[in-house]
Amino acid sequence: MIEIGNTCNLQCPTCPTPRQKILRKKELMSFSNFILTIDSIKNSIHVVYLYYTGEPLIHPDICKMINYVHQKNLYSIISTNATLLDQKIADELLFSGLDEIILCLDGITQESFSSFRKKADFFEVMRNIGYFCKQKQRLKLKKPFIKLQVILNKLNQNEIRGIKKLSDCLKVDCLHIKSLALCEHVYSKDEIKKLADIFFPDGKEYKDKIRYKQENHKLIINNPPSKCSLAESQFVVLVDCKISMCCYDLNGNYIYGNILAEKFDDIWFNSDVKKVRELANEKKHSLCKVCSNFI
Ligand code: SF4
Ligand code: SF4
């Protein structure tokens, strides 16, 4: 996972990025540092997620970056709020070598969509997503794999049938109904309570997608697994090229090293780093104790 930028043009209420919960400097990764990063890690990875805490289409070099990943025979994925996915960028992305795109659409009415994706124009996003999907079909392209993603919440829980119909109509490759998770460690109890009251789904139909239950103003995670493989299978290159333990470490408090200063293998196989990964695998790391993002 590479954080090519840590800013976003939206103000989604459940996201830490616009709520000033990320205390690191707001910036974009330079193209030259991106190249150095890919060159440093390319023999150790298969998949590159070109996003983390920000909207990837904000980066002016996004298509060049994807193309560089493609040239190195690595699988590339972006996830976008689709507000900036106009026809020009859509056409560029379709020919960039991109392997997978996640299009976030969290409602099919202006009311549900706009409450969750604050500052986004519902009709513009629908138009952008429609163009991207139809253009891929018109051009008979096999790639990118298109995943339409819906974060299940109280405001869209009655729209899922409609969203399924829309995804059939758009002929997307996959519809992902995602559980709503909060980065509990960066929110106060009051903030969590407020967000939970507004957004946590309460319908019966998608019970398996509901991540928490509330007990006495506390969030209890439903059926948490005893282990998490995320820190073993992934790492995050932050915007300043430091390597962080996993995507839950929003403020880069658990840094393994810096790609610009050390070789990747020296960082990854360092004995202290190995210990952190082992702890995380058993969910015994302090960050894991407050995490609901496990896999
Ligand atoms: S679009 Fe994504 S990064 Fe931007 S505010 Fe919303 S959830 Fe956060
Ligand atoms: S449990 Fe959470 S913090 Fe720990 S490794 Fe998994 S995702 Fe990261």
What would you note in describing this structure?
By secondary structure, this protein is of the alpha/beta class. The protein is built from ten helices and ten strands. 35% of the residues are buried. The site of one iron/sulfur cluster has 13 residues, from helix 8.
Summarize the structure.
By secondary structure, the chain is α/β, with parallel strands linked by helices.
Question: What series of H and E elements makes up the topology?
Answer: HEHEHEHHEHEHEEHEEEHH
State mean pLDDT (0 to 100 scale). 93
| Percent range of helical residues | 25-40%
Oligomerization category of the chains in this entry:
single chain
Class per helix and strand makeup? alpha/beta
N- to C-terminal separation? 15 Å
Which sheet architecture does the biggest sheet show? 5 strands, parallel
Q: Spans with pLDDT under 50 lasting ≥5 residues?
A: none
- Strand arrangement, largest sheet? 1-2-3-4-5
Taking Cα atoms only, what radius of gyration do you get, to the nearest Å?
19 Å
DSSP helical segment count: 10
Proportion in β-strands: 5-15%
How many strand units? 10
The shape is: globular
Bound chemical compounds: iron/sulfur cluster
Topology (SSEs and partners):
Layout: H1 31-41, E1 47-49, H2 62-71, E2 75-80, H3 87-94, E3 100-104, H4 110-116, H5 122-138, E4 145-151, H6 160-170, E5 174-178, H7 189-199, E6 212-215, E7 218-221, H8 230-233, E8 236-237, E9 242-244, E10 255-258, H9 264-268, H10 271-281
The protein binds iron/sulfur cluster (2 copies).
Residues 8, 10, 12, 15, 17-18, 54-55, 81 line the site of one iron/sulfur cluster (SF4).
